[in-house]
Amino acid sequence: MNIISASRRTDIPALYTDWFLRRIEEGFVAYPNPFSRAIHTVSLAPEDVHSIVFWSKHYRPLLPYLEYLQKKGFCMFFHYTITGLPRYLEPCSPPWELSTTILKELSLRTSPRHVTWRFDPIVITEELDSRWYIRQFASIGSRLSGFTQRCYISFVHLYGKTRRNLQRLGIKFREPSLEEKLELTLELEGIAQGLGIEVLACCQPDLVAKGIKMGRCVDGELLSKLFPERTPILEHRPTRPGCGCTASKDIGMYDTCSLGCTYCYANQSRTLAHIRRQRHDPSCQMLLPTP
Predict the structure, then answer these.
(1) pLDDT-derived band of residue 30, with 50, 70 and 90 as boundaries?
(2) What is the pLDDT of residue 168?
(3) How far is residue 186's CA from residue 2's CA, in Å, rounded to a whole number?
(4) How high is the pLDDT of residue 267?
(5) Cα 139 to Cα 101, 112, 276, distances in angstroms
(6) Cβ-contact 39, 286 below 8 angstroms
(7) Separation CA 153–CA 55 (nearest Å)
(8) pLDDT tens digits for range 144-184
(9) Does 74 have pLDDT greater than 80?
(10) pTM for this prediction
């Protein structure tokens, strides 16, 4: 039995719902190891799946099929990224007002415990300073109060590809100090508490060391509480420094998300992601015919 991650590497609900449903119907999915390129196959038979953890910026394409998946016996958990960042950072994300409406519907069909709001990444620029993020967080959070219990935050990880993509567009960003990060996080935490939402930090060991609670995107303990009929999966298997995640099988592929977020660590470039998306075949066992 496995936890299925769908997916850290691409936005399956927004872009590949048809493919995902075909994989569910056929009962298995193939995916490449992003480093060795070895192909792995994992069962998607309901009895072999502990739960499915989704990540997305846009769940509308998946919403019509939730009841179908629930009737087949799948247990599901949802990360919903809603930031309202400008178009030069998130060119294809829906308006945040629409996203809050969709999150509410998702929550009503499951529960506030099953849907986590992600307010990340935080990218500090001249325009997007702490005051901007505080205002934006309060605006979005006020609409989500009662529909989610958790909010994950993180500051952008400036990988080489992330730096290049930001610099290519002339975006003047900066790495905030730990003191700045902590001050902003505590401001957001205070707002969230008033809304009945708990703030947790994702892959931010410096903040956790200062007392901020750690967020675990694939949280085996939480999933065991949500789905007590399933045998618990609690093995710790981090994906990067500071990660607290439980072991899972990620069925996505890098360089396939055409939403084009400038800060994205999963794409080398928008152009490559668009080219690879054009190669996508919904009937294929993997997102792409070859890795």
Answers:
(1) very high
(2) 82
(3) 35
(4) 87
(5) 13, 19, 36
(6) yes
(7) 14
(8) 999 999 999 999 988 887 888 888 888 888 999 999 999 99
(9) yes
(10) 0.96
Residue 169 has a pLDDT of 80
Q: In the structure encoding, which two tokens stand for residue 86, read together?
A: 């400008």
Q: At what angle do helices 96-109 and 130-144 cross, to 10 degrees?
A: 40
Q: Among 33-47, 106-120, 261-275, which is the least confidently predicted range?
A: 261-275
| Max mean pLDDT range (205-214, 237-246, 260-269) | 205-214
Question: Does residue 288 carry a pLDDT above 70?
Answer: yes
Measured CA to CA, the distance from residue 171 to residue 97 in angstroms comes to 25
3-state secondary structure labels for all residues of 55-99: EECCCCCCHHHHHHHHHCCCCEEEEEECCCCCCCCCCCCCCHHHH
Position with higher pLDDT, 273 vs 75 = 75
188-227: b (≥16 Cβ within 10 Å) or e: bbebbeebebbbbbbbbeebbeeebebbbbbbbebbbebb
- String of DSSP letters for the chain: -EEEEE-SSS-HHHH-HHHHHHHHHHTEEEEE-TTT--EEEEE--GGGEEEEEEEES--TTTGGGHHHHHHTT--EEEEEE-----TTT-TTPPPHHHHHHHHHHHHHHS-TTTEEEEEEEE--BSSS-HHHHHHHHHHHHHHHBTTBSEEEEEEPP--HHHHHHHHHTT--B----HHHHHHHHHHHHHHHHHTT-EEEESS-HHHHTTTPPBP-SS-HHHHHHH-TTSPP---B--SSTT--PBP-EE---SS--TT--TT-SS-S-HHHHHHHHHT--TTSSSSSS--
